[in-house]
Amino acid sequence: MMLYLMDVWATVRGFMAAGGNILWLVALVLFLMWALMLERYWYVNWVAPKVHKQIIASWNAREDRHSWYAHRIREAWVSQATQEIRARMLIINTLVAICPMIGLLGTVTGMVSVFDVMAVQGTSNARLMAAGISLATMPTMAGMVAALSGVFFSTRLDAKMKIRMEKLKDRLPQH
User: Fold this and answer.
1) Can you give the residue ranges of every domain in the chain?
2) Whole-angstrom Cα distance, residue 152 to residue 69?
3) What is the model's pTM?
4) Close Cβ partners of 148 (under 8 Å, ≥ 6 residues apart)
């Protein structure tokens, strides 16, 4: 098992070396994005149902559920629950949108490396130029893969949040 983990780590290090320093930035953004998404999944699936039960119990315990004031209180509770459940979604969506841009930054730095090799060595050294091309293409690919995974799961998370909020609104009748 330990040998397998060492092989995996060596493969990751080789990939990161081939893609340059920008890949570490992509990895950092990807880690942060996934940490925030997992926290939101945990909140939506385990914390929000408890909070919503408390809101429903508070609503059902009220004697006055028909007046204008009662409806404003209901709106305030729903609004507060919406803010709590949607917390950090703007950051997640921003990180998803930034991933391809970081990949393109890697493309630019890789191409600068290629032009630097061409200026110093000329166009006859294909191996050195290939290293720069690798520096240019690997971060772009990594940024796109990171963004695609983020788009898919953040969209699913957003849909789950909307369903959870609609269920809360349905369980708070407005007689």
Assistant:
1) 2-170
2) 40
3) 0.85
4) none
At 110, list the tokens. 């890789």
CB neighbours of 167 closer than 8 A, spacing ≥ 6?
52
pLDDT digits (tens, 9 = 90+) for 46-97: 999 999 999 999 999 999 989 999 999 999 999 999 999 999 999 999 999 9
Q: Which two tokens stand for residue 52?
A: 């919503």
How is residue 23 written in tokens? 């890949």
- By CB atoms closer than 10 A (0-12, 13-18, 19+), residue 163 is exposed
Residue 132's nearest CA partner among 19, 21, 23 is 19
Q: Are 135 and 113 in contact (CB under 8 A)?
A: yes
Q: Cα dist. 17→101, 131, 138, 148 in Å?
A: 20, 10, 10, 23
How far apart, in whole angstroms, are the C-alpha atoms of residue 133 and residue 127? 10
Q: State whether residue 94 is helix, strand or coil.
A: helix
From residue 120, alpha-carbon distances to 79, 115, 135, 155 in Å are 62, 9, 18, 47
A 10 A CB-CB count for 99 gives 24
What is the separation of C-alpha 175 from the centre of its chain, rounded to a whole number of angstroms? Answer: 40
